[in-house]
Specification:
By secondary structure, this protein is an all-alpha fold. The chain is 83% helix and 0% strand.
Length: 125
Amino acid sequence: MSLETPLHRVEGLGSAHSGVGHFWRERVTAAALIPLSAWLVISVLLLMGKTEAEVASFFQHPWNALLMGLFVIVSCVHMMLGLQMVIDDYVHHSGRRIVLLLLNRAFAWVVGGLSLVALLRLAVG
């Protein structure tokens, strides 16, 4: 026995069942950012006062480049998920919501991609 009306069942309205997955992705990226942010703060403190060449050689080390790449990817995904939640909650016009969600995703991809390309150029060259 269901509490749904026949019209509700036919229209298929209701939960999209995607909220829990979004919730966990947001929490996992937040948890991953804790050690990555600690590494970044320590690295910045160690690199203060260094020359450009010394900073470039720091990122030429594979572990440093890998950790910085992970920081960029995880922070962009976390940013995208957080802004998506704000847009879903506060933008009520469906057309605007779709446009803003697409711009949010595009912005995250562009920022992440450009950051990774810059990091790769720094690490290789």
